[in-house]
Amino acid sequence: MSFSAKDVMALRQKTGLGMLDCKKALTENDGDLNAAEEWLREKLKGKMETRTERATGEGRIGILISGDDAVMVEIQTETDFTAKNDAFVAMVEAVTALAMKAPPGDVACTPDMQKAIDDQRITTGENVNFARGLRLHGGHFGSYLHHDGKRSCLLQVSGRAPDDVLKGICQHIVFHDPAGISEDDVPADKIETIRAEAVEEAKATGKPEQIAQRMAEGRVRKYLEENTLLHQKYVLDESQAIKDVLPKGVTITRFARYTLGA
To answer: Which of 24, 159, 188, 219 could potentially form a cystine with 198 if both were Cys, beta carbons 3.0 to 4.6 Å apart?
Structure first.
């Protein structure tokens, strides 16, 4: 035998597979650790493909900010037990770092990222997949990742603001899910629908046209206050709107909110 028990243990620690599988892999590859690892990967590839239809309702989101670049990714798996495992968390962090190499915009899963994910599929026996990712460039960033790793926000601004202010706004976004930054981000047909419904309701109660129009404008204003980020009441201090929390000269240019599986 051209390998030792230490070699078997080393392969087991690297792959997370059982001793018998590792011993067989080394036997088939004359004790070559790297070749044995690749052999296991190919051998198990067929088994991994049979898992791809299993539901992946658990997982974790990763965020990384580096200078004027930021990235956020979502990796899904089958069970919460696996999603909380240290090795899975480390894999998500590794994939997030690899995603930083992608061009700005939606992130596609690269071969290096897929290899890290496949290692978890082999080790855990679960269906693990890359769900989505976003890479942003330019400006300044804030972020928030909920303690369970299932909800997150990445915020991009022009100008400088304290990190705690940006984190607070990200927390607000996670829990209030705004439809856009301001009224400019709300589709015109949505506003017209709200206005038309309000006018119709007012007229149905006998209100004259002028009053109905005023009530409709009030309905639109209330919708924008409740659903656009700048006008929403700040979750950490409801005496202020988000626009009041922002330091002078700082403008929110984009935000992305992830909820696992949504």
So the answer is: 219
Cα separation of the two ends of the chain: 52
Total Cβ atoms within 10 A of residue 152: 24
Q: What pLDDT, in 10s, does the model give residues 186-199? A: 889 999 999 999 99
| Mean per-residue pLDDT over the chain, rounded | 91
Q: Shortest CA distance to 167 belongs to which of 235, 84, 94, 261? A: 235
pLDDT digits (tens, 9 = 90+) for 58-94: 999 999 999 999 999 999 999 999 999 999 999 999 9
Please indicate, yes or no, whether the overall pTM of this predicted structure exceeds 0.85: no
Question: For the chain, where do the domains classified as CATH 1.10.286.20 start and end?
Answer: 187-227
Burial class (CB in 10 A: 0-12, 13-18, 19+), 259: middle
Fold of 187-227: GTP Cyclohydrolase I; Chain A, domain 1 (1.10.286)
The structure tokens 């915009």 sit at 105
Burial class for 39, CB neighbours closer than 10 Å (0-12, 13-18, 19+):
middle
Domain 5-49 listed as CATH 3.30.450.40: no
